Each structure stands twice: as structure tokens, then as C-alpha cells.
Fold Decarboxylating 6-phosphogluconate dehydrogenase.
Amino acid sequence: MQIGLVGLGKMGGSMRERLRGAGHTVIGYDTNPALSDVPGLVDLVQGLDRPRAVWVMVPAGGATQHVIDQLSTLLKPGDIVVDGGNSRWTDDEKHAKELHARGIGFVDAGVSGGVWGLQNGYALMVGGDDEHIDALKPVFEALKPDGPYGYVHAGKVGAGHFAKMVHNGIEYAIMQAYAEGWELLEKADSVDNVREVFRSWQQGTVIRSWLLDLAVNALDDDHHLEKLRGWADDSGEGRWTVEAAVDNAVPLPAITASLYARFASRQENSPQMRMVAALRNQFGGHAVKK
């Protein structure tokens, strides 16, 4: 199958390689000429046979909108656009409507796999009409991990990115739990080999996971994580998950707390904790650190 791929960064570039390895023809475009197969989007579209399929892997928001606006004028009725970035599901509905007005199909694809996707495959959660999903199945099958699982038609347009958003919210909470457990082990006087405790959990325990494996990798590189600053960004999907929970009246205490923990990580001298310390000193005479 032929497919165009817009955005050849860490994931997009690896996806191009995996698809080519499966025998598909991929024409890639990136604003970085060193990565690109063609000089521009016009050349990418002209290099594909109709009906065309173009997969977009650029940052969510304005960058994605810009590419879709361009593709809407270059593609023809019967062609399909796939948004495989981390777009918000509400943007999918807007993009689908805009492209549908021109007879162009739209599929949203939540993609998980990160820098390991080339080797292990990508978990794919896709949303859209059956006819568009069916047309793209050879691509999904090539990208997903080997075996029966790793790809799902989650529902209508928006369902793919909504499912990926919830996936990332769960990821936030799991990572926070590992981080809290690691800190407690590091603080305990009786435990003097925290890294090997984490390693022992990799076999036969109910908390074993790929994230645990990655935690052990990180501890192998830096035994006490002393080279890192305790600061963690958020991609936006954690926020969207919490907002969706409010909209649907679904309690998400663990995921919400993990999101707020990331916000707290950005405060070297937390104003809230200064107030807590002041109050503890006022009502109980507890010591404070100047």
C-alpha cells in the first residue's frame, strides 16, 4: 500500500521505517529537509496514487490544523487523512467535518509506543467510519505489535484519541505510584539496595509492567537518579482526561492527583508548602526551615 507521512520526528520517522520494512511505499515529508523524501506537501500528494491516504504526525493544535488545512485543498474526494498525533478528540470532530465537506475521509489514531515502537510495534486506537478504517487496515497491521492484539477500532471519529487520552491518564497514575514507592524505599534506613528491590518486582509480582522495566533501566543508568532534577512536564492529555472526567461526572482521584503532582514538581520552593509550614508553626509550634 502507498501512504504519505507528514512529520518525521522521533515517532514519525520510526513509523516510516517500520512501514517500509513491511513492504509498504511511504512518501515522507518533514520541515527538516534532511529527513524529508520530498520538498513539500504538494510533491507528497502528487507522488501518491488515488485514492490517497496521508498520515499526519505533527504536534497537536495549530501545527495539525495547518497541515490539515493544506491537505484539504490538495486532496480529492475519496482520499483519507489520518491524524496520528496527540490531538484532542474534540478537534477530531472539527477536522472530520471540514474534510467531509470536501469529500475527504478522516480517521483519528491514538498511537502509543514512543521510541520503542520501531522495534516492538505501536499500539493503535483508531476512530472513524468503517469504510475508511478498512481501507487503512494494511497500514494498521504493519504498525501494530506482532500477535493478535495492539490495534482496535475504538468507535466513531474522536474515539481513537479519546481512548489514547485515557491511556495516558492511566500512565500518569502508574508512574506516580512507582515514583512514590521508590522515594519511600530510598528514605527507609533499613533498605540499602532500592534498585534491586525494583528489579525483583519484574518477575512474579502483580505490579510488574513495561513501565517497571523502564524504571529499572533508569536506575541502572543512575542508581539514585541524582543526575536528574525533580521536574516533570505534562503533555496535555492528563489535563484533558481530568476535564473529561468532570464533564462525565466520573471520579478519577488517582489520575487527578498524579497530574497535580507534576504541577508541584515545578515549584522548587512551593508557596503552598510555605503556608502549610507557617500554619503548623502557628498552631503547634512546629519547627520551620528558614
User: Anything to note?
Assistant: The chain is about 50% helix and 10% strand.
